[in-house]
Design brief:
This protein has 274 residues and is mainly alpha-helical. Helix content is 75%, strand content 3%. The longest helix has 29 residues.
Length: 274
């Protein structure tokens, strides 16, 4: 008797595309609408990241709760407009986790403690870039576009061209061609942004976009290094084809603080720099 044909499993690329087709419109809508929609999105991301970070470090249940409360309060206070309070909560959370993770002998206590600072800084920066007068929708969507096209460019250039490995001990799949592809795509996104805005600062914006592409790839390598250290492939399984939220947001975790810092120091959006 003939065996029924097995349904072929969807490829990783197919899953990535389908997940992006669902997630991106929801994220763009929440960012565009602001208010409660944006707040809910940020708080959901904060909750997911706290769970994944705790899982990576095999934190005790009590520590997991402290990490979750820290991220939620950091995000919530920033959304409310209390950025100093947000920074204070992140600092207290880091200190408490640093102490308790050693007392409880949790796995990877340094990663858990450093993760509080790393992720809290990104959450705070994301909120500040969306709500501050120096940031705003235009800058936020540009930053988002740079990270996304960097990821896409690096993925296809790395798969299609291959070549020497970028950091084989950390992430064997990453190549120099992938990095270059990501940088070129980010620079192109910068040029398109300037053209749409009818500006003339192509060189400045393209250069900044290229730098942020490198920053995004550093974020990817940081997360890959953490996962390799603790011996897991993905930070979670919430997003088909991408793994966890930390896997999907690794570039944002570095690009958002750098973009916020540049904007804050210069007193204006990098898109306006001449």
């Amino acid at each position: 008797m003939a065996q029924p044909l097995a349904r072929p499993e969807p490829s990783e690329l197919t899953l990535r595309i389908l997940s992006a087709a669902v997630i991106l419109p929801l994220a763009i809508s929440a960012i565009w609408l602001g208010g409660w929609a944006f707040a809910i999105m940020v708080l959901l991301i904060a909750a997911a990241m706290s769970w994944e970070l705790s899982r990576l470090c095999q934190a005790a249940p009590g520590l997991t709760i402290i990490v979750s409360v820290t991220f939620l309060l950091t995000s919530g206070l920033a959304i409310y407009g209390s950025f100093l309070g947000s920074i204070a909560i992140a600092g207290v959370g880091m200190a408490v986790v640093a102490l308790l993770s050693r007392i409880s002998r949790s796995e990877a206590p340094f990663i858990l403690t450093a993760g509080i600072v790393y992720i809290s800084a990104a959450l705070l920066s994301v909120v500040w870039l969306r709500v501050s007068e120096s940031g705003g929708l235009g800058l936020f969507f540009w930053m988002m576009a740079v990270v996304v096209v960097t990821d896409v460019g690096a993925y296809f250039a790395g798969r299609g061209i291959g070549g020497p490995k970028l950091a084989p001990r950390i992430s064997p799949a990453k190549t120099w061609s992938g990095l270059l592809g990501g940088v070129l795509c980010a620079a192109l996104a910068g040029a398109v942004t300037v053209a749409v805005r009818d500006g003339d600062n192509f060189v400045q914006v393209m250069a900044i976009a290229g730098i942020l592409a490198v920053v995004a790839q550093i974020g990817d390598l940081v997360e890959s290094g953490v996962k390799r250290h603790v011996g897991v492939k993905d930070s979670g399984n919430l997003i088909p084809g991408h793994g966890g939220v930390l896997d999907r947001m690794d570039g944002f975790l570095t690009v958002a603080p750098v973009t916020a810092l540049m904007t804050w120091i210069a007193g204006g959006s990098p898109l306006e720099w001449q």
